[in-house]
Design a protein that fits this description.
Keywords: Signal. The structure is a single chain. By secondary structure, the protein is mainly beta. It has one domain: YVTN repeat-like/Quinoprotein amine dehydrogenase (Methylamine Dehydrogenase, Chain H), CATH 2.130.10.10. It is about 0% helix and about 55% strand. The strands form seven sheets. A five-stranded mixed β-sheet has the order 1-27-26-25-24, with no helix packed on it. β9 and β10 (about 130-135) form a beta hairpin.
């Protein structure tokens, strides 16, 4: 993931933009390139694009009340299954993954409300090994950053269960890193000394916990204030993901929830930082979009966002921000398709109990 920074005192400017369809016949499109044929239900939850000829997809296959880890590797010609070590004797899944080179690929797991055993797996170009197992009482793992062989970050904050906290690997040992007054869940980096994260904490909250943005400056984590975000028990923002491509190009996405009488409603939230101030760049709610779950770079100066919808778990379409506008981008017609993550040009998810890999292009 990338890194980020926010300046205190910046002003959030409201800006809601209309969608335009990606509908030219010769335009790039999403297509399914692999659908799993596992005998048991499975899902792909994370994807890493190392290069055009090197990518990894991870997930799990369900076998009764237990899961087995799944990995697939792209070698430039085809996707193949690769065996993973058994990190823990418990229900498990891959939560997130990252890479800095073809011989430094990581997959992290645990996760799920019934599983509090988290782990880190590492690929050295020849084989997968277990780098770390957290103890069951240390909690869940939600995200990671792989900045190099000697610099790996892991994040986990309380959600469906207790989080593992914030950790760093220096090439030899894992060390827990303090984040005073808050916990971090998702992160991205501009550099090793400029890392951005979203999380939760009581610091400055009218309600507790509340969503927040924090930044690593090479020495410590510090909370970043974003003026204008709602923060009451009946009107609040939930920050779900962050993408930092440079100190002047940072995205934070999530949703805003409001109580109106006895009804609660949610709408998507997208914030962009240009190095001086934050502004809202929210997509319209047409089509029932209630939140933006993830945000990733599209490789062409824009970003992809995976939306959540009010009345279905199916991912009806993806959203792409490019050339100053949000675009609704169609997905293949597959029953019950759910997209879990995008790493351009790849996306992974599931369809009717089968893991799916999608690719964007002509």
């Amino acid at each position: 993931m990338p890194y980020k920074r926010v300046l205190a005192g910046s002003v959030v400017v409201g800006l809601s933009l209309s969608l335009t369809p990606d509908a030219m016949a010769a335009a790039p499109r999403w297509r399914a390139v692999l659908t799993s044929t596992e005998k048991q239900p499975d899902r792909l939850t994370s994807v890493v694009s190392v290069s055009r000829s090197n990518a990894w997809a991870f997930g799990a296959v369900q076998n009764g009340n237990r899961r087995a880890l799944v990995a697939r590797h792209w070698n430039g010609r085809k996707w193949s299954k690769v065996a993973l070590p058994k990190p823990v004797d418990a229900p498990r899944q891959i939560t997130t993954a990252g890479a800095s080179a073809r011989d430094n690929v990581w997959a992290f797991g645990g996760g799920g409300d019934e599983d509090t055993t988290s782990f880190a797996l590492r690929w050295n170009g020849r084989k997968w090994t277990v780098s770390k197992r957290w103890s069951p009482d240390e909690g869940l793992l939600s995200d990671a950053l792989v900045l190099g062989k000697n610099n790996v970050w892991v994040f986990g904050y309380n959600n469906v269960g207790a989080g593992v906290g914030t950790w760093n690997f220096n090439g030899r040992t894992w060390k827990r890193m303090p984040s005073p007054g808050f916990a971090l869940g998702e992160a991205d980096a501009v550099s090793a000394r400029d890392i951005w994260a979203v999380g939760a904490g009581p610091t400055g909250c009218a309600m507790a916990p509340c969503s927040l943005v924090a930044r690593w400056n090479g020495r410590a984590w510090k909370q970043i204030k974003i003026p204008g975000l709602p923060n009451t028990e009946e009107h609040y923002a939930y920050l779900r993901d962050v993408r930092a491509r440079s100190a002047k190009d940072v995205w934070v996405v999530g949703d805003v929830t409001r109580r109106q009488g006895t009804q609660w409603t949610s709408s998507p939230l997208a914030l962009h930082y240009n190095g001086k101030k934050w502004r809202r760049v929210n997509p319209p709610t047409a089509g029932g979009v209630r939140a933006l779950l993830t945000v990733t770079a599209d490789g062409s100066g824009g970003v992809w966002a995976v939306p959540a919808f009010r009345d279905t778990e199916t991912t009806r379409h993806l959203l792409r921000y490019t050339k100053g506008r949000w675009h609704k981008v169609a997905l293949p017609k597959k029953a019950g398709l759910q997209v879990h993550q995008v790493a351009a040009p790849w996306a992974v998810g599931e369809s009717s109990g089968n893991g799916v890999i999608l690719k964007y292009g002509r």
